């Protein structure tokens, strides 16, 4: 119980602190948050729209979660992210739970700490995107499958089927394909793929449960959009992304493996040793085999995909944490643990020292962040904690690892408290969001930052020709015009517009501009 409360407290702090502290400047967040807002405002429970147009990128589960968040906390950033954070909490607690049942208290604690020490894990579950919902459904469906396989009790398989259905509702076919492939490989490797085992799964009931959860919405959106949503989602956003790749998001075969190790820092440095330990225990520890397979299935699947994004490999995180958590817990009983963990500890110290320096130079060289490089020094707790780990590990390798975990978790809290908010303050969304909200008439020319729709809380018409825009301006008063591009000089060709402000979009080469007719009072 003490370990559970400790993990619960840390999870609450990391996932929920300053949850609404930054704007939804990220494109995916902005579109998702606004889509949920539009659905709630129009009482539309089936067809997702963004800026009044059909949105075919993702299924409905994330939108339902965000609408629930808006109902609880209001239509704001915290409301959009609330259930993403809840998903993160449940993923950590579920990982703790299964490790406690099958691996012991220390392995449960370290599996949870491995997740919580990862900055990318915490960031991932604080975004208004579908990935937190998919990760939760994917993780629970596999944990419940394992419990059903281990205990041979169908109640676990029933829960597995429910979360498979929810996984499909969260992100489509991968919600079924990746867990299903994992189940098959696990039963093949453990030599338990038999008719008797298949009958225990009761797949006929499973198909019914999955269909009851997932099919009604897919059928409804297909009918209400005349098949348009179905065609665009399955062909463009699934098959084409896998086969052809998104522009700017392609990469070599090994990229997902790099993403996995980078995303799970600092304790991913133990990944190789953890996998070696799984191999040694392959005949005696079936949960470790399941964890290794679950992580590898995700990573290898996306290695073959032409589109490679770091969030694609995030469903592998909980399973890698099981392997690493079990390995770290085992070091306390290993006489050679000091030697075995030496290289990995030095790597963590190197990374921890390098991070503040690297972030400082990144901020100094990245518009519009050149003047806030001082925020990097708020990360000095990382090298301090890592160096303290070198001292602590002389007494106990476990104390050294705990020093590292505390340093990374505390630094993550500091980042959400200050640096992220200071960085966010440099964005055009923060600078001009209130101005956009206060205007009744807001339009865009050619392109604009989609986050403005969320803050305007109304549809922003987009004009592609100068003539269309001029006609609109002649017929309406006090119109605010938004533009976006690498070079906004094309806005100068619009007569009678004056520039209110131009700002560089965060982590982008494009800038956003806000314009008003010069003869209007401002």
3D architecture notes:
The chain has 24 helices and 7 strands. Helix 15 packs across helix 16 (317-331). The N and C termini lie far apart (60 Å). The chain is globular, with a radius of gyration of 25 Å. The chain has helices spanning 2-16, 27-41, 61-73, 77-102, 105-116, 119-124, 131-151, 154-171, 174-189, 195-201, 203-224, 228-243, 255-263, 271-280, 286-304, 317-331, 337-340, 342-364, 381-392, 397-417, 419-425, 428-438, 451-456, 466-475, and strands at residues 49-50, 53-54, 441-445, 462-463, 479-485, 497-504, 511-517. The protein is α/β, with parallel strands linked by helices.
Q: Give the % helix.
A: 55-70%
Overall structural class, as computed from helix and strand content, comes to: alpha/beta
- CA-atom Rg in angstroms: 25 Å
Which shape, going by the Cα principal axes? globular
End-to-end Cα distance: 60 Å
The overall pLDDT, averaged over residues, is 92
Poorly predicted sequence stretches spanning 5 or more consecutive residues: none
Main sheet record:
5 strands, mixed
In brief:
With 522 residues, the protein is α/β, with parallel strands linked by helices. It has helices at 2-16, 27-41, 61-73, 77-102, 105-116, 119-124, 131-151, 154-171, 174-189, 195-201, 203-224, 228-243, 255-263, 271-280, 286-304, 317-331, 337-340, 342-364, 381-392, 397-417, 419-425, 428-438, 451-456, 466-475; strands spanning 49-50, 53-54, 441-445, 462-463, 479-485, 497-504, 511-517. The strands form 2 sheets. It has a 5-stranded mixed β-sheet with strand order 4-3-5-7-6. The protein has a two-stranded antiparallel sheet with strand order 1-2.
């Amino acid at each position: 119980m003490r370990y559970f409360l400790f993990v619960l407290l840390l999870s609450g702090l990391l996932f929920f602190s300053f949850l609404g502290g930054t704007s939804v400047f990220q494109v995916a967040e902005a579109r998702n948050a606004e889509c949920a807002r539009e659905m709630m405002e129009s009482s539309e429970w089936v067809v997702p729209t963004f800026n009044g147009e059909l949105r075919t990128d993702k299924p409905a589960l994330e939108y339902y979660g965000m609408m629930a968040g808006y109902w609880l906390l209001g239509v704001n950033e915290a409301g959009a992210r609330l259930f993403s954070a809840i998903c993160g909490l449940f993923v950590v607690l579920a990982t703790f739970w299964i490790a406690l049942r099958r691996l012991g208290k220390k392995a449960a604690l370290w599996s949870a700490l491995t997740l919580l020490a990862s900055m990318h894990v915490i960031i991932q579950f604080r975004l208004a995107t579908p990935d937190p919902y998919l990760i939760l459904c994917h993780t629970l469906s596999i944990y419940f499958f394992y419990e059903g396989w281990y205990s041979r009790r169908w109640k676990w398989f029933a829960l597995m089927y429910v979360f498979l259905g929810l996984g499909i509702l969260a992100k489509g076919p991968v919600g079924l394909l990746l867990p299903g492939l994992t189940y098959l490989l696990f039963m093949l490797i453990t030599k338990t793929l038999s008719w008797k085992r298949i009958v225990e799964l009761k797949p006929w009931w499973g198909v019914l449960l999955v269909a009851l959860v997932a099919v009604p919405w897919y059928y409804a959106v297909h009918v209400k959009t005349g098949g348009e949503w179905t065609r665009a989602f399955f062909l463009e956003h699934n098959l084409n992304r896998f086969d052809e790749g998104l522009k700017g998001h392609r990469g070599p075969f090994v990229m997902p493996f790099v993403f996995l190790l980078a995303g799970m820092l600092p304790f991913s440095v133990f990944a190789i040793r953890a996998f070696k330990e799984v191999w040694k225990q392959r005949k005696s520890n079936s949960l470790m085999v399941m964890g290794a397979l679950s992580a590898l299935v995700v990573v290898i699947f996306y290695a073959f995909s032409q589109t490679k994004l770091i969030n694609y490999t995030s469903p592998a995180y909980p399973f890698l944490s099981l392997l690493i958590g079990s390995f770290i817990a085992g070091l306390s009983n290993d006489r050679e643990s000091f030697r075995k963990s030496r290289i990995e500890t030095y790597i963590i110290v190197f990374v921890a020292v390098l991070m503040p320096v690297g972030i400082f130079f990144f901020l100094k060289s990245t518009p519009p962040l050149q003047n806030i490089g001082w925020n990097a020094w708020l990360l000095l707790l990382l090298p301090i904690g890592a160096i303290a780990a070198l001292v602590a590990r002389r007494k106990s390798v476990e104390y050294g690892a705990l020093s590292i975990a505390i340093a990374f978790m505390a630094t993550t809290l500091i980042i959400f408290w200050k640096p992220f908010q200071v960085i966010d303050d440099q964005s055009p969304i923060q600078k001009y969001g209130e101005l956009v909200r206060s205007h009744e008439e807001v339009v865009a020319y050619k392109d604009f930052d989609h986050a403005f729709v969320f803050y305007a809380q109304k549809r922003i018409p987009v004009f592609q020709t100068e003539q269309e825009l001029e006609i609109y301006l002649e017929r309406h008063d006090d119109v605010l015009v938004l533009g976006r591009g690498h070079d906004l000089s094309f806005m100068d060709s619009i007569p009678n517009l004056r520039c209110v402000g131009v700002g560089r979009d965060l982590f982008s080469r494009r800038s956003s501009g806000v314009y008003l007719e010069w003869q209007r009072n401002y």
